[in-house]
Write a structure and sequence with these properties.
Elements: H1 2-46, H2 59-71, H3 87-93, H4 99-112, H5 114-130, H6 134-146, H7 151-171, H8 177-184, H9 190-200, H10 205-227, H11 232-241, H12 243-255, H13 266-274
Helix pairs in contact: 3-13, 4-5, 4-10, 4-11, 5-6, 5-9, 5-10, 5-12, 7-9, 9-10, 10-11, 10-12
Length: 285
């Protein structure tokens, strides 16, 4: 009887040890599974991205962006602030009275008027200068100067083009630029000047186009804001609203040829003609 009592505690002890061992083994397996599955996930989500894996511009892309931001900034001295492209007459005539009407007017000018035509000329000049095709560049430059609809618009685009060329020659000279300018054989209007200078610096046509149209629209909005007048917030709202128009006009211009040139903004063309006889004027066009 006494021996039986001694065996029972030993059996109970063995069972307890077995249970503890099983629990520990199971815990170790679970810990291993959790560690092997969760730890990589935590490392993936919290580990910093190496610097060499981050997206960066190369030297040529950075230089191109720097030059476009400089050349098409309001601070670049081409005198764009002096011209309204007929917007001054449109405000006096009552065609433009507020932010909404200014936005509609500019969207038409951009997509169906002088904005689109200038964009096509820029693209064609850039491609001819990049080829290089001096005879083709001369024809494009002559056509661009001939298709300006009024004397004041001719003054506007030729004066800005001449200023752009002179400053580029002085501060941003590069190989081949003088040859391209000479190939034009006469006055160089603004979109042609921007196209051939960017081509001489090997800046791609697409970013040049978008920067040019952004500068063009910004100058129109600046003129309208002073004439209506509008506040700075309204001006930025108009610029934001025209983003889609700028993108679509740039795309169309890049896909167009000289045969696709044309304008349907007759009221804007009349405005640029009638501005010359306007009684009081703040702008030269």
């Amino acid at each position: 009887m006494r021996r039986r009592r001694m065996i029972m505690p030993r059996m109970i002890m063995a069972i307890i040890i077995t249970m503890i061992t099983t629990i520990m083994t199971t815990t170790n397996i679970a810990t291993t599974i959790i560690t092997t599955t969760i730890t990589p996930m935590l490392m993936t989500t919290t580990e910093p991205v190496p610097a060499d894996a981050q997206s960066e511009m190369n030297a040529d892309e950075a230089a191109a962006l720097y030059r476009l931001m400089t050349w098409l900034s309001p601070a670049f001295p081409v005198g764009a602030f002096s011209y309204s492209s007929g917007i001054e007459w449109a405000v006096e005539a009552g065609d433009i009275t507020d932010a909404a009407s200014l936005r509609d007017w500019l969207a038409a000018m951009l997509g169906e008027g002088s904005g689109f035509c200038d964009a096509v000329f820029l693209a064609q000049a850039h491609r001819a200068a990049s080829a290089p095709d001096e005879a083709g560049l001369r024809e494009i430059a002559e056509l661009a100067a001939a298709l300006v609809p009024s004397r004041e618009r001719q003054l506007e685009t030729s004066t800005q083009g001449r200023a752009f060329i002179e400053i580029a020659r002085s501060a941003w000279a590069c190989d081949g630029l003088d040859r391209m300018i000479s190939a034009c054989g006469g006055p160089v209007v603004y979109p042609i000047a921007v196209g051939l200078v960017s081509a001489a610096h090997a800046i791609p046509v697409a970013p040049t186009m978008h920067a040019f149209l952004h500068a063009l629209v910004s100058n129109w909005i600046s003129a309208g804001a002073r004439l209506v007048p509008l506040g700075q917030t309204d001006s930025q709202r108009i610029l934001a609203a025209l983003e889609v128009d700028v993108v679509s006009t740039a795309r169309r211009a890049l896909e167009s040829s000289l045969d696709d040139l044309g304008s349907a903004t007759f009221r804007a063309d009349l405005a640029s003609l009638r501005h010359a006889t306007q009684y009081t004027r703040l702008f030269r066009s």
